[in-house]
Amino acid sequence: MAQTSAPPAPNAVQTIPGMPPVIDPRNIYSETKAGNISPAIAGDPARVYVPNLRGNSVSVIDPASFMVVDTFKVGRSPQHVVPSWDLRTLWVTNNSEGRSDGSLTPIDPHTARPGPAVAVDDPYNMYFTPDGKYAITVAEAHERLDFRDPHTMALIGSVNAPQCKGINHADFSIDGRYAIFTCEFGGYLAKVDTVNRQLIGMLKLSKGGMPQDILTAPDGHKFYVADMMADGVFVVDGDSFKETGFIPTGIGTHGEYPSRDGTMMYVANRGSHKVHGHRHGPGSVSVIDFATDKVVKTWPIPGGGSPDMGNVSADGKLLWLSGRFDDVVYAIDTDTGAMRVIPVGAEPHGLTVWPQPGRYSVGHTGILR
């Protein structure tokens, strides 16, 4: 099971039943600081798991040597490697683009080896409700969210979002009562009641129109939406479900990750407005200060590149990102922006870093709380 926490303070956030308490209402990432590894996973080997979308495989990197130490086959079109809510399984989402034979491949993070795949319809991405009650597989091609048993992946119920073309990324409110999903091919956001499993609102973004990753701010109420056409990040008040601002970053804004101290957000700019871009594009990483919503640093990829999805190392010193169109992974020093480049398989996508600090995972490439 996930690590237990101290009882909440008297002015605690009233979370949904079964959700671990919010320790610091000013910073939902307070339990993911460097060194705060759950005892349940402390013995797992340090690895970076990279799904190769066109390679139908996962490359495994040893972060100490920056070398690929294993590669294994998975299902067709692996998109993301997703840590489970209880941190005991890493699920590879094989959505088998354009076909009906999607699957989830479980990886045992203690052995770093895969197990038998589970048949699941179109699992482009996957999330876990903050109470651990449901896994949500994101059936992108069907504009549908499938709520499943978080262990067996048996289907419990679905939420249809017919206006949400290309539904794919999400994050959750501080109390776990709702999630906001991005609609990549329609320029909308979809708000979903996670308790009653209902679509409760749609919001059209003011410009751009290709929302990608979304990240909850440390206060748990504000959301940041990366938009690949707008070349920046929309700021949205989740409770009122209104757009409140915009932060320009770089070409093809795509992935978002909090720093280990919860003060900064790393934003991957993929360097292209296209779903299938060219090698050595004008990719970069922007660093946004959560307190001011300002870009404080920009790190261009030397020689060009395509930073996409990833996560931060357990100690916070490296940002690991897939180079989607360049068949590489970038390991970026979070102090200086210096980069190492590691060749992997064909079209790497949503990599995860393991183990990570935190009590439980809400999914994607390892957004822990």
Report on the structure:
The protein has no helices and 29 strands. A hairpin with a 5-residue loop joins β17 and β18 (222-227). The chain has 369 residues and is mostly beta strands. Strands 4, 5, 6, 7 and 8 form a 5-stranded antiparallel β-sheet that branches. A 4-stranded antiparallel β-sheet has the order 3-2-1-29, with no helix packed on it.
Number of E strands: 29
Kindly report the average pLDDT value.
96
Low-confidence stretches: none
Structural class by SSE content: mainly beta
Helical stretch tally = 0
Task: Tell me the strand percentage band.
Answer: 35-45%
Specify the overall morphology.
globular
End-to-end Cα distance: 14 Å
Largest sheet: 5 strands, antiparallel
Question: What is the radius of gyration computed over CA atoms, rounded to a whole number of angstroms?
Answer: 18 Å
Helix share, percent: under 10%
Keywords:
5-stranded antiparallel sheet; mainly beta; 369 residues; 4-stranded antiparallel sheet
What is shown here, in short?
With 369 residues, the protein is mainly beta. The protein is built from no helices and 29 strands.
